[in-house]
Each structure stands twice: as C-alpha cells, then as structure tokens.
Design goal:
The complex is a heterodimer of chains A (423) and B (120).
Chain A: H1 3-10, H2 12-19, H3 23-26, E1 33-37, H4 41-53, E2 58-63, E3 68-69, H5 74-78, E4 88-89, H6 92-96, E5 100-103, E6 106-110, E7 115-118, E8 123-125, E9 128-131, E10 135-137, H7 161-172, E11 178-183, H8 193-208, E12 213-218, H9 226-236, E13 241-244, H10 246-249, E14 252-256, E15 261-264, E16 268-270, E17 273-276, E18 280-282, H11 284-288, E19 313-315, H12 329-348, E20 357-359, E21 362-366, E22 369-380, E23 385-393, H13 400-422
Parallel strand pairs in A: 1-2, 1-9, 2-5, 9-19, 11-12, 11-17, 12-13
Antiparallel strand pairs in A: 3-4, 6-7, 7-8, 10-18, 14-15, 15-16, 20-22, 21-22, 22-23
Helix pairs in contact in A: 1-2, 2-4, 4-12, 4-13, 8-9
Chain B: H1 16-33, H2 39-52, H3 73-85, H4 91-99, H5 102-113
Classes of the chains: A alpha/beta (423), B mainly alpha (120).
Chain lengths: 423, 120
C-alpha cells in the first residue's frame, strides 16, 4: 500500500482533505508551508488534520514541552482517581503522520516577512501560520498573588507541576482542613472546571478526610449548570461544599501567602490548601504579535479562524473571541478542524464545505455520576460572531443509572478524543 | 455492527413507520449520490465524519461510546433520524443530529459505512 493510501484510510479528517485536492498539487508545485505554534489540543488537532490528509502541505509544529498533559480530566488526578501518566500525551504519532515536530519556543512573529523566530535561533517561513497559545494568567488582579505565590497557592489551571503540587498539598492536609477555591471572572478556560474540582476533591475528602470542607469563593453571582452541581453536592457531599457568590463576599481581592489566607471584601478565609485561579487572557505571544484586541483575546473570522488583525495567521482554541463557544478542549478541536479545512482550501484548492462547530464536555460530580452538555454553533460571517444553535444537558432528578452511564461514556470520550487529537 | 447493539442507540422496532423512514433514507441517499459517490461528496462526508471522530473511536474500541466507522449506512441514517426526534436516549446525539441536514446525514453515513476498521 502506498504512503498516500495508508494515510487516506487512516484519518477521517485527513481523508477529507486528500479527496478534495485541486489540480495545483497534482501538477507538482512547491509544497505550501504551514507553521503551527502550540502543541495543545488546538495545535495538535490542526497539525494532524493537515498532515495526515494532505502530504503536499508541509506542517511544522512548535511546542516547548516534550509531552502534553491534559487539563481536562486532571481533576480526577487531584482526587486520586487517575494517574498523571494517563493524562500525558506525546507527539510521536504526529511525527509519524508527517508533522515536523520541533521542541522549541516561538519568540517572535513577523506578519510582514511571514516568519517565526524560535528560541534556538532558527527562523521559519510560512505561507499560513496557526497559533494555538492557550491562556495566560493575569497576575495583578489579586493583591499578593504573583508567579511566586503560585508555588504556595497553586492555580493548577495548566496541567503539570501545578497540578502535582495541588495534589501533594491535598494529600498532606490534615483532616478537618479548609480547601478554598477562588474562581475567576468570565471568560476563563473550562467554565465547569472549578465546580467539578470542588466535587471531586469533596469525594476525596469524603473517603480520606471526612471532617474537611471545600469553600468556593466566586467572582460571579451565578454559574453555568448550577442546579446540577448543587443537586449533586447535596446528594453526595452534604455539608461539605459551600459556594459563596461575589454578592456575598465582594470577591477575592488579595491573598496572604504567609498565612495562606484568601481575602475578600467581607471576610478573610484561612485555608489549609488554597487554589487560586487567576483571571485569564490570550497567551502572551499573540499579544506581542498584534493578534489581540482591547479585550486581551483574539478576534477571528468565525468560519476560517483567520485573524481579523493580521492576514494569513489563524488562531484556534482558548485564545480566541469565540462568541458562544466555551473555552474548552472540545471547542479547540472543533475549531482546529474547521480551520484546517479552510487552510487546505486556500493553499491547495481542496474543496471546502460549511463548517460544523460543536462542543461537548463531560463533567464529573462523583466517580459514578457525571453530566454532559452538547452545543452546536453556527458561525455567522456577517456579524463575525459564533452563535449557539442548540444546547442540551443532563437534568436534575435523572436516574442513577443514567448518570453512571454518562460517567462511563466520559472515560470512552477521553480515550477517543485524545486519540483524535494526538494520534 | 448493529446500531441496536449499542447502549446509547434508540431501540428500533421494524414498525411500518420505521420501514417507511428507511425507504425515505434510501431515497435521499440515492438522490445525493446519484448512484455513485463523486470526490466532492466523499470529501464533504469525510469533513463531516471528522466531527464524529472527536467522540467516536475509529480504531474499533468501544469504551462507552459506540464505534460508528464501518456501520451499516441505513442503520446509521435510521438511528440519526430517531436521535433528531427526541432528546432521549442521548441529548448529545440529539444536538448532533439536529445540526445535520438530510443531505449531510446521507453524506456522512455513506462515508462512515465505507471507512470501517481503519486504525489511525
């Protein structure tokens, strides 16, 4: 079997591109070059979509880490329900699919010269650049909470050493301690994540430290799927989780790392373990490259994900202004596929069809109790906004069997999704 | 594989209404493909199938979410039409089904039926 036909059979996304190739590639012109910065879900999906289907496109992925640890499902690790190794994914399969994977960091983008400078000194040229930088944390919004403070009060909102630190703190905490989660204002990565974290840490406490409590200090007055969470907390962890909206506390405005205190306008809470999740904006590289607007996020075309501020540069994932699409791994995967098909069409003449944008996030309430949402979106090229079309989610009062089945599906989804993303 | 063998798929008794819908499915699939699939139709089907791959494993493992690559075309169309009608048994598939036009559903079903068992 030829290399092409193996790839054709091997990838649904890739086959889409391969079969739609126009005549320019067949005539043997030089390969267009796509550079992808960031090997998270958006970047990996994009690279895989392009490389596995269109051998005539040269794809280079720049990622500083040798392996990627998923933030999604990392709350299971915090609760002792999974290992960090099970959340860790390498780039070998992407390399085998034809992606040139460079373990390096992009230091500068020159949109005029169409070049990317790397930490090691190399300069790459591109026909199209895709940036999937994720989020950066806005230190300064909470007095006393800076990079150094994250070593005492971890945010654990990028999976890796921060997640391991928080797990160690939870394990070494005495029974009867207070675990405080400070939730940032919208928009932030993984909107249900803080509340899933509260649920699964409470599960851990219930098993091993039953006198301990979880306190959520929110920067908002309501949160998405609040009824489902509060119902589950009452059923599984009565009296263990307290949620305080901003209207009650005035919000977290400072921390004191020496006493591990989280300070709101109304009250100071002394924590045994404090998890402070800062406000967020697009990763720093895109701001320096002029790809963000005053909001701190990247405006993009809703069908191609090309920047509205710089030609031939596309952005996918958490960093974009995604309209109704949440900042989630699923959204990043969905956007990357639509973006990949659009880039292929622009560079190779491959046929392009109206993109389907979708998001579905499994959220765990306990090991045998999970819910899942499902949202479809319509990109509107006229308004430049991605709008939700349909939205469904589990309901309070469902049978335990329905929730068990959903929890089982969540594990199947993780396996399929990470395979789809990283190979 | 049979759709009725999967946990999340709706039950499909061979009622008269069901048989009628299968005929309808066949009709619009034939109308779309005109008897044989061209490259554009296959490509469109493959782009739609890429969305499915975010949840449905394509390497033959079924860990809570059914494998759909290689599934019988008519069974897939029938199941999706059922999903389109009701939020139960799967609100996720209800959302997916609602997002697909009849033409798109025929294209993706034809594509998936022809791409079973391929590890990637």
């Amino acid at each position: 079997m030829s290399r092409l036909s193996r790839r054709q059979l091997g990838s649904l996304a890739g086959a889409a591109l391969l079969l739609g190739l126009g005549g320019s590639i067949a005539r043997g012109q030089a390969k267009p070059r796509v550079v992808v910065i960031g090997g998270g879900v958006g970047g990996a999906t994009l690279a895989r979509t392009l490389a596995s289907g269109v051998p005539a496109v040269d794809v280079t992925l720049i990622e500083r880490r040798a392996k990627y640890i998923t933030c999604f499902h990392s709350n299971h690790y915090l609760a002792g329900l999974s290992s960090l190794a099970s959340l860790t994914h390498g780039y070998d399969a992407l390399a085998q699919a034809g992606v040139t994977v460079l373990q390096d960091s992009a230091t500068a983008i020159d949109p005029t010269a169409r070049t990317v400078s790397l930490q090691t000194g190399a300069v790459l040229t591109y026909d199209r650049l895709v940036v999937s930088p994720g989020v950066s944390f806005k230190f300064g919004g909470i007095e006393g909470y800076d990079e150094a403070a994250t070593e005492i009060m971890p945010h654990a909102w990028n999976a890796g050493p921060q997640t391991e630190l928080l797990r160690r703190q939870l394990k070494s905490m005495d029974d009867g301690g207070l675990f405080v989660i400070a939730v940032p204002p919208d928009p932030f990565r993984c909107p249900p994540g803080p509340y899933e974290r509260a649920s699964l840490v409470a599960y851990y406490f219930k098993q091993f430290k039953p006198k301990s409590k979880v306190l959520i200090l929110d920067a908002k007055d309501t949160f998405r799927y609040q009824d489902i969470f509060e119902d589950a907390w009452a059923r599984h962890y009565p009296g263990m989780i307290e949620w305080l909206p901003k209207q009650f506390t005035g919000g977290v405005h400072a921390v004191d790392v020496t006493t591990r205190s989280v300070i709101t306008t109304a009250e100071t809470f002394r924590a045994a373990v404090a998890n402070v999740i800062p406000a967020q904006s697009a990763g720093s590289l895109v701001a320096e490259a002029g790809l963000t607007d005053a909001s701190g996020w990247c405006p993009v075309d809703p069908t191609t994900f090309e920047s509205k501020l710089q030609a031939d540069i596309h952005i996918v994932g958490d960093a974009i202004i995604g309209g109704d699409m949440p900042k989630s791994a699923f959204s990043a995967n969905s956007q990357a596929k639509a973006c990949g098909f659009a880039i292929s069409a622009a560079l190779t003449g491959a046929e392009r069809f109206p993109p389907h944008l979708f998001n579905s996030c499994y959220t765990s309430l306990a090991p045998d109790d999970a819910f899942v949402n499902a949202l479809s979106f319509r990109p509107d090229p006229e308004t430049g906004r991605i709008s939700v079309v349909d939205s469904f989610v589990n309901k309070v009062g469902e049978s335990a069997e329905t929730r068990r089945r959903t929890a089982h599906e969540a594990n199947g989804w993780y396996a399929a999704f990470t395979r789809d993303t990283f190979g | 594989m049979s759709v009725t063998a999967t946990a999340a798929a709706p039950s499909r008794n061979l009622t008269a209404a069901c048989r009628r819908r299968v005929m309808v499915c066949s009709f619009f699939a034939a109308a779309v493909f005109g008897g044989h699939a061209g490259a554009a139709e296959v490509s469109h089907g493959a782009q739609l199938a890429a969305t499915c791959a975010a949840c449905h494993s394509v390497d033959g493992t079924n860990a809570g979410i059914p494998v759909i690559a290689g599934m019988d075309e008519q069974a897939l169309i029938g199941a999706m039409l059922d999903y389109k009608e009701s939020e139960t048994p799967s609100h996720v598939m209800h959302a997916v089904a609602l997002s697909l036009s009849d033409e798109e559903l025929a294209l993706v079903a034809r594509y998936l039926a022809g791409h079973g068992g391929g590890a990637r």
